[in-house]
Amino acid sequence: MKRVYLDYAATTPLHPEVKQEMMEALEGTYGNPSSIHSFGRESRKLLDEARSEAARSIGADFSSIIFTSGATEANNLAIFGVARAHAHKGKHIITTQIEHHAVLHPMEELEKEGFEVTFLPVDESGVVSVEAVEEALRPDTIFVSIMRVNNETGMQQPIEAIGERLKEHQAIFHTDAVQAYGLEKLDVTALNVDLLSVSSHKIYGPKGIGFLYRNDDIHLAQQIFGGEQERKWRSGTENMLGIVGFKKAIELLEKEREDRMTHYQRLSEKFIAGLNELSIDYHMNGKKEEHMPNILNISFPGVEVEMFLTNLDLEGIAVSSGSACTAGSIDPSHVLKAMYGEKNDRIYNSIRFSFGIETSEEEIQFCVERISKILNRLLPNHTRG
Ligand SMILES: Cc1ncc(COP(=O)(O)O)c(C=O)c1O
């Protein structure tokens, strides 16, 4: 059966050149980068090169990159690291209701430790306002964490403007840039951030590796204790295979970023045009201006999302909804709930389609036709009047 993968925001496959690089490293280099002999030095060289590449990609210094097991760990290190090191200056933290669980859940843990966390709302298009951050700021606010691009809607948040406002405040500013990194050229100085998280498996690199950018002036409480690796910010022998693959993925990204963006733009336009041509009844979640073209979050009125996802899967199409499905009941997406409220149908009938470098226009056409076919079956009167 033909299979179409449209869930690149969840994860991407390994780029063939990344795989090639990793195969070579697997066969050749196995020294521990902390060892001083020649085997160790070979690995250290690869580690240093990867760190330089990662730093360069966000306009940062070599020493500001901390390799982690992915963005979940990078977010945890940023959140607990700041909270525990700066609690003497205050115990108030600001974030948003639309963050990934890798931010929301650590924040909830901090609440249990006596921190006060403000979870800011967003507007109907899924964007937090600079004014809302300003209003929430207090003298005892020590930390603000706001994602750059939302993983469910593709909506970009005004990080530069928020960072600008925070320059005169003691609060340390972190952004989860996982979904942005593969699309826009990020620069930590232009973004005005102190900390930034990235994950390799969203940019055609291997899973289980990522980094936290840390401005050299920011002190973090150590979270993992052990050896001296990552200048003690993250003890443990480095995941060298992952790091080698990640470096290659970054190199390719830097080379191809603009072409990839153009490709995603073309695909999302084709997708929307296809829905219109087939008179499919739908609403876009989010708005076009601040929207990243690789993610389309679409509501199909009248549809029951679990049934729809199952039907798409039977047709070979892999997509996702933000809703978690537990024991037959749907737990609606916290992101769509923040945008539309608890009662809006969109939180129950929306699907996320996300595109990648291998997605073809023909696959988009196939997907749109199958959507139409499934809707005709599930909802005979679904088309626009
Ligand atoms: C916005 C965002 N933050 C964090 C993560 C977690 O990244 P990782 O899988 O590298 O732990 C993801 C992955 O889905 C994400 O989309």
Structural overview:
- This protein has 385 residues and is α/β, with parallel strands linked by helices.
- The chain folds into 2 domains: 4-11 and 257-378, Aspartate Aminotransferase, domain 1 (Alpha-Beta Complex), CATH 3.90.1150.10; 16-252, Aspartate Aminotransferase, domain 2 (3-Layer(aba) Sandwich).
- 41% of the residues lie in helices and 15% in strands.
- It has 12 helices and 14 strands.
- Strands 2-8-7-6-5-3-4 form a 7-stranded mixed sheet, sandwiched between helices. Strands 9-10-14 form a 3-stranded antiparallel sheet, with no helix packed on it.
- Helix 4 links the parallel strand 3 (92-96) and strand 4 (116-120).
- The longest helix is centred in the C-terminal third of the chain and has 38 residues, at 240-277.
- Pyridoxal-5'-phosphate is lined by residues 70-72, 100, 102, 147, 151, 176, 178-179, 199, 210.
- It comes from Allobacillus halotolerans.
- Keywords: Iron, Iron-sulfur, Metal-binding, Pyridoxal phosphate, Transferase.
- It is an enzyme of class 2 (transferase).
- It catalyses: (sulfur carrier)-H + L-cysteine = (sulfur carrier)-SH + L-alanine.
- Its EC number is 2.8.1.7.
Key phrases:
alpha/beta, Aspartate Aminotransferase, domain 1, 7-stranded mixed sheet, 3-stranded antiparallel sheet, 12 helices, binds pyridoxal-5'-phosphate
- Based on CA inertia axes, which overall geometry fits? globular
What ligand molecules are bound, each kind once?
Answer: pyridoxal-5'-phosphate
Biggest pleated-sheet summary: 7 strands, mixed
Alpha-carbon Rg, integer: 22 Å
Assigned CATH superfamily of the largest domain: Type I PLP-dependent aspartate aminotransferase-like (Major domain)
* Beta-strand fraction estimate: 5-15%
Estimate the helix proportion, in percent. 40-55%
Give the spatial strand order of the biggest sheet: 2-8-7-6-5-3-4
Which CATH top level class of the largest domain fits? Answer: Alpha Beta
SSE succession: EHHEHEHEHEHEHHEEHEEHEEEHEH
CATH architecture of the largest domain: 3-Layer(aba) Sandwich
Mean pLDDT across the residues is 95
The strand count comes to 14
Distance between the termini: 34 Å
* CATH fold-type name of the largest domain: Aspartate Aminotransferase, domain 2
Count of discrete domains = 2
Structural class: alpha/beta
In DSSP terms, counting alpha (H) and pi (I) runs of 4 or more, how many helices? 12
| Contiguous uncertain segments of 5+ residues | none
